[in-house]
Amino acid sequence: MKYRSFRKFTSAFAAMAATAAASAFAFNAGAAGLAGDANCDNKVDISDAVIIMQSLSNPSRFGENGSDQYHLTAEGALNGDVNLRGNGISNADALTIQKYLLDTIQTLPESYAQGQPADNPATSTSTSTTTQPWQQPTTTSTTSAPVNPSTNLNIPDLGTPMNANATAVADFRKGSTPLFFASDGWENGDPFDCGWYKGQTSLDSGVLTLTIDKDKTGKYNYAGAEYRTSDHYGYGYYETSMQAIANDGVVSSFFTYTGPSEDNPWDEIDIEVLGKDPTKVQFNYYTNGQGNHEFMYDLGFDSSKAFHTYGFDWQPDHITWYVDGKPVYTANQNIPKTEGRIMMNTWPGRGVDGWLNHYNGNTPLTARYQWVTYNNGGAGNNNQQTQTTQQPTTTSTTTTTTTTTTQWQWQPTTTTTTTQPVQQGAIADKGTPMDTSATMISDFRTGNAGDFFASDGWTNGKPFDCWWYKQNAQIKGDHLELSVDRKWTNDSNPDWNPAYSGGEFRTNKFYSYGYYETSMQAIKNDGVVSSFFTYTGPSDDNPWDEIDIEILGKDTTKVQLNYYTNGVGNHEKMIDLGFDSSLEYHTYGFDWQPNYIAWYIDGKEVYRATENIPKTAGKIMMNAWPGKTVDDWLKAYNGNTPLTARYQWVTYKNSPKNGGNNNQWQNPWQPQQTTQTTTQGWQQPVTTTQAQVNVQNNGMNKNATMVSDFTTGKAGDFFASDGWTNGKPFDCWWYKQNAQIKGDHLELSVDRKWTNDSNPDWNPAFSGGEFRTNNFYHYGYYETSMKAIKNNGVVSSFFTYTGPSDDNPWDEIDIEILGKDTTKVQLNYYTNGVGNHEKMIDLGFDSSQDYHRYGFDWQPSYIAWYIDGKEVYRAYDNIPKTPGKIMMNAWPGKTVDDWLNAFDGRTPLTAYYQWVTYNKQ
After folding, report:
1. Nearest-10 crossing angle of helices 91-101, 46-57
2. How far is CA 721 from CA 403, 733, 738, in A?
3. Which residue, 382, 377, 371, is CA-closest to 180?
């Protein structure tokens, strides 16, 4: 577990320091105590680093007792001590100030000398310093002392099942195991700021717990925990079920190790979750002491909230790491050879704030492990999913069945009909195959540019903070790279002189109506854009017509779609991808026809525009660039370089994507359907589709604990609220006339007020409909089939509720569709009256057009929301506990125009419900 040292800044920074030397000693009086303010001028800038360096290089003149009138003062020396605060100033303090000014760390001090209090802990993004090799423990006691035992952890298990048939199995859920023992009474030295004690390990809570706490012996600052095997293991598949710690400065790990303490070379394979960001995991390995193979992988979940499975398949020619049964990264250079022990540990770091962030001393902190397995047959014999996301490829045993892994191979193996070769290296391909029948194909995997050339030696002006150079747009191996980098020349422009270089590929030819598609991996970095688009404009003696697919590096789980027609834009649409586009290749495309543009992600339509469609043929283009003066759109660019977007291929087909049968937008959550809509006056559209029947028949769980099937004409467990009002913001009274089963569905309507009932505090103008159960329901899965209202100021809902009217705390779980935008759904919950958990989800369809299924799984430790059976969001914090009534209502709002938009008074408006189910689980 050695870690890379911080790379020194270049001579360019030294030149900047020299320019500041003249002002370095302008002040030596002022308020003391500002960390980094070595010259006591009440601010931190380059002059503070300069005065520290001058005082060290020429102490007789610039030291604390120096002859120069602007020498370093005692106050300045205290302020300037920002690296290992408490041990006096050194060149390291000057470097730390430089790191702070360059935003590689965010606060000062950076770190503290041993025994010094953390009065102002630092946060840093840099890599860190080296440490000493592992040491063999001095004792091997296997006893386990309880550490904060819990009899009911209520931690969800979201990983893959344990392979009970593995070569070695340690199931901590069954108690102690002879395979492992606890490290006890020894330390590793830096950066492990702890001693290892068996008392920090426990099996008393039904899992193995490894806990960081204060060192009660007083020998070390903290006590850490470690479990290790007695035996050594070689090639095979290693896996654990782990819940990691979330806390700056702390590591939770699973790894193999052997080294000099065992008369072996230092060979190690690591899985480490850094507590500063438990949504990522770091992979690494060492071969005969050679490391620096770190790879940070975005998990897509918070590893501190649930158990997940983490594993690695170690073979003579590769290591492949797995998360929840899926391969996510592969290394195949200088692979370790020496058998090692299987180990897990939790520990706080010292002197590695740049890697872990500064540890704040919080205790106790506990990582939990359910089991560990080792299978000497490798991952292919470990009941793993056969989907390959990185280097390993599979060979199919037949051409008509699902592929079965038979052996690992390290060259592309053509055993299926897909035209897309398996990726070599660390980038998975999750997209759809390239269309080999397209009108134009530029397959960069062949090493050729096809119809494209690189833009070179010019700039676009704002907001593109770059010049375009061919050096930044190159085909390398099996892909095109478009890079953001430093500026290559001193080219200048009197109106715009950008600081960086960008990469752009464009066609010579112009293309018109048809289907455009690319396979792309985007850049993740604030302030940067990765794109695929068509463009023509005044430079081509044409109107400005453009169709865009843009991924903003500030959030690579979304894509922005847009278009311009004769210079008129403002058609932006942000789509949630459901994946991180910076981690793998995915396919992005658009079908441009005279009367619409339909955008596609991985072959599935996600959005359609039908107004003011572009008409002019354009060039096909891709570029990667940093922005300036657009921080509100992209966030501020931090100057990180190089940053690279990758493209495998581009295709264009001069016909519609779906062969001309493309006049109906397809809901990406449902199969194709034919819809006929009739609308009268201001009534909600009544839609009759075959898909509605299919949704009801195929979607409703008839075996659920509670079923209220309104398609039978019966209310089931529900009754209508009648003759009362909620007060603001519900601008209505509730009446049973507004909540009625009509034919094969329930209708909840917003209408005029039915009576002259009044309330001195609240006299709403309208009536609303609400259905609610008599009974209370608790943990389980709740679902309904609903079609919402489209109208500003109105809400259609499905939720659970209890509160003071039931002599209970206010606990509530919500699904609410706001009529102002029925392509989204708002999720929320309240626990004992505490809310503010709103989450807006893009549906990918218009919820007012058809019935769809909306549900949530309420468990003691989480709430997971589902749309059409697919999970879309999960919450873990402060989960409601009190059973509630199941409810649906439709209502207009008042005094909440910023949330719902103003209600225009249109009536009647109706939401439709087919059924509601609850399944206790």
Report:
1. 170
2. 55, 9, 9
3. 371
Q: Hunting for tokens 């953001």 — which residue is that?
A: 484
Residue 172 backbone phi and psi in degrees, to 5:
-70, -15
Phi and psi torsions of 920, nearest 5°: -70, 120
Cα 707 to Cα 791: distance, rounded to the nearest angstrom:
30
Instruction: Write the DSSP symbol of residue 912.
Output: E
Query: What are 515-570's pLDDT values in tens digits?
Result: 999 999 999 999 999 999 999 988 888 889 999 999 999 999 999 999 999 988 88
Q: CA 900 to CA 898: how far, in whole Å?
A: 6
Q: Which residues of 319-350 are buried (b: 16+ CB within 10 A; e: fewer)?
A: bbbbbbbbbbbbbbeebbebebbbbbbbbbbb
Tell whether the model's pLDDT for residue 574 goes beyond 90.
yes
Residue 668 has pLDDT above 50, yes or no: no
Active site residue 747: no
Single out the catalytic residue among 268, 504, 517, 550. 268
Q: Among the options 75, 272, 770, 812, which is catalytic?
A: 272
CA separation, residue 727 to residues 120, 669, 761, 765, 820 (Å) = 48, 37, 8, 12, 22
Q: Say if residue 290 is exposed, middle or buried (CB neighbours under 10 Å; 0-12, 13-18, 19+).
A: middle
Omega before 543 within 30 of 0, i.e. cis: no
Determine the Cα–Cα distance for residues 733 and 772; give it in Å rounded to an integer.
Answer: 15
What is the DSSP code (8-state) at residue 477? T
Would you say 390 and 257 are in contact if contact means Cβ atoms under 8 Å apart? no
Q: Write the CA distances from 865 to 278, 781, 831, 849, integer angstroms.
A: 22, 9, 17, 21
Beta strands in 458-579 (DSSP E): 466-468, 473-476, 479-486, 500-507, 514-521, 528-536, 545-552, 558-564, 573-576
Q: Grade residue 772 by pLDDT with cuts at 50, 70 and 90.
A: very high
Please tell me the total number of residues recorded for the chain in this structure.
921
Backbone angles phi, psi at 634, to 5 degrees: -105, -10
Whether residue 64 lies in the annotated active site: no
CA distances for 182 relative to 198, 238, 269, 468, angstroms: 5, 19, 20, 58
- Cα–Cα distance, 22 to 727 (Å, whole number): 68
Amino acid letter for position 442: S
Write the DSSP assignment of 418-442 as a string of letters.
-SSPPPPSS-EE-SPPP-TT-SEEE
Tell which phi-psi region holds residue 436, choosing left (phi > 0), alpha (psi between -120 and 50) or beta.
alpha
- Tell me phi and psi for residue 776, to 5 degrees: -105, 145
Give the CA diameter of the chain: 97
Q: Are 349 and 356 in contact (CB under 8 A)?
A: yes
